[in-house]
Design a protein that fits this description.
- By secondary structure, the protein is of the alpha/beta class.
- It has nine helices and nine strands.
- Helix 4 crosses helix 9.
- The termini are far apart.
- The relative contact order is 0.14.
Length: 281
């Protein structure tokens, strides 16, 4: 049996309430349990191996040098309690009640971040891309010029990967729009429009795992690595930023890098519209 190390606050809430579901997908480092029949706001709960990035509805465990394939298969029944996660009635993860809980950064911390103008964001964004390339990390090309001409359907469900590259870019973009709202205390008018378009189309355009992450972004939620990157981006510690870049870039195949590019695009475009007073509220 594995030990719980750290979990997102939504995972903790679901365990504290008690819930159950069926295994949706199994990988070496992760297993997703579909609980959408019980709750509409979170469709998947995820168990992760040690060292993984923690997300709002995930649990990082003590599992190392092993594979979740050895412990479960698709359609197995998972039960979540305040103390233990069971798989087919067999205890799989213990220590839920005493594990650390990760929550997004508070408004006070966000409010203390530097207010960068669009030129500074563009310059810092180019430094991020240069650092990625210097570390041999390939950037996908996204044919998006500005928020004003953005077409959700050119991105949603497009590209390779378990979560398509276009979805990862959109997740980063939407997360950045929510984050700038907190930093600058202004919301871009295009955010509700963009969010509504994604919600209307993602049911038929992409898969459940990708929809799950898009739901996070639409609610203004993100994983720990994404948050560390955005916070470091507005900071003045280059070493911390470099560490955050590599941590996020290591996520998935190209998912982390695609999300970084979406964040950079979203930060620049949102702040540009704020400066131009382009219907920001």
């Amino acid at each position: 049996m594995f030990q719980a190390h750290i979990m997102g606050d939504r995972f903790h809430f679901r365990c504290s309430q008690g819930t159950s579901g069926r295994v949706h997908s199994v990988f070496d480092s992760a297993v997703n349990i579909d609980i959408s029949v019980n709750n509409s706001d979170v469709s998947l709960l995820t168990l992760l191996c040690a060292g993984s990035d923690v997300m709002p509805a995930s649990l990082v465990t003590s599992m190392r040098l092993d594979s979740w394939h050895n412990y479960c298969k698709i359609d197995d029944i998972a039960i979540f309690t305040p103390h233990t996660v069971y798989m087919n009635s067999v205890p799989l993860v213990s220590g839920i009640a005493t594990a650390a809980i990760w929550k997004p950064v508070d408004d006070k911390t966000v409010g203390s971040l530097s207010i960068l103008n669009s030129e500074e964001i563009a310059e810092r964004g180019n430094l991020v891309k240069t650092y990625l390339k210097e570390n041999g990390i390939i950037l996908n090309a996204f044919p998006i010029e500005s928020l004003d001409t953005l077409s959700v359907n050119t991105l949603l469900g497009q590209g390779m990967g378990l979560t398509p590259s276009g979805d990862d870019f959109l997740s980063g973009l939407i997360a950045a729009m929510h984050f700038t709202r907190r930093v600058y205390d202004q919301e871009c008018d295009l955010l509700p429009v963009l969010a509504n378009t994604v919600l209307q189309n993602m049911g038929t355009k992409t898969n459940q795992i990708s929809r799950h992450f898009l739901h996070y972004a639409l609610e203004g939620l993100w994983g720990r690595a994404t948050e560390r990157f955005m916070v470091a981006f507005f900071g003045d510690d280059d070493l911390k930023l470099h560490g955050a870049i590599l941590e996020k870039a290591a996520y998935g195949g190209t998912s982390g890098v695609d999300e970084i590019q979406g964040v950079l695009f979203g930060l620049y475009e949102t702040v540009r519209r704020i400066e131009e007073e382009s219907f920001c509220i």
